[in-house]
Amino acid sequence: MKPFYAIDVSLWSYKGGAIPVEKWEEVKAAGYEMAIVGLWTGAYINESAVGSLENARAAGLRIAAYYIHHDGNTPEFHLQKAKEAAGYLFNELEFLAIDIEVKPVTLETILRAVELVKEENLIPVIYTAGWFWNQYMYGVTELSDTPLWTADYDGDEDINKIHKYGGWEYCFGKQYIGDSKDLFSEMQVDASIFRGSPNDSPTEG
């Protein structure tokens, strides 16, 4: 399947509440195909998530989401907060990324989070960065069979050009621009490129 581009937004990306259709239409016109909305910061629910997802879909974008996971609460608690934020659109997400960039966090609870997302009949994706994984997860490889969305801010759209870690030989998604205020007015966003499907290998997409 053909690779595609996506924009992801957090609770703090847009100050006016739910991101309006017109903003998402700008995103689509710029060549992005998917909107990925942050649901849960690990401490706060994104109360505007449903509206942002609805508006993104109304603009013709595919939708996915992510939520932060850490050991300050149980995997069940974090997922429940993500479900509350996504509302009726939760089971319509193309994938749900488990964001691993807040410590403390352990392999045991991440494995449980992956299991819980699968139980919801959603595709689990691990979002993290090499520096965090190597420093705080000690480079563990037990999750290398779960699709990876890696933060690799080199500005290069080549999805095959990444820093390898954690046993992942390639990634499903590469976030190559972070916290940009220059791509779209009034919005702070990250930009990523994804393979056509979480199961695609470098020779397939």
Strand content: 15-25%
Q: Numbering strands along the chain, what is their spatial order in the largest sheet?
A: 1-2-3-4-5-6-7-8
Total number of beta strands: 8
Average of pLDDT: 96
Structural class of the secondary elements? alpha/beta
Question: What's the helix-strand series?
Answer: EHEHEHEHEHEEE
| Radius of gyration, in angstroms, nearest whole number | 16 Å
Report on the biggest sheet. 8 strands, mixed, barrel
| Shape category | globular
Low-pLDDT segments, ≥5 res: none
End-to-end gap: 5 Å
Overall helicity: 10-25%
Q: How large is the count of helical segments?
A: 5
Polypeptide structure, described:
The protein has 205 residues and is α/β, with parallel strands linked by helices. Helices cover 25% and strands 23% of the residues. Strands 1-2-3-4-5-6-7-8 form an 8-stranded mixed beta barrel, surrounded by 5 helices. It starts with a strand and ends in an 11-residue tail after the last strand. The mean pLDDT is 96.
What is this entry, summarized?
With 205 residues, this protein is of the alpha/beta class. 25% of the residues lie in helices and 23% in strands. The longest helix has 13 residues, at 107-119.
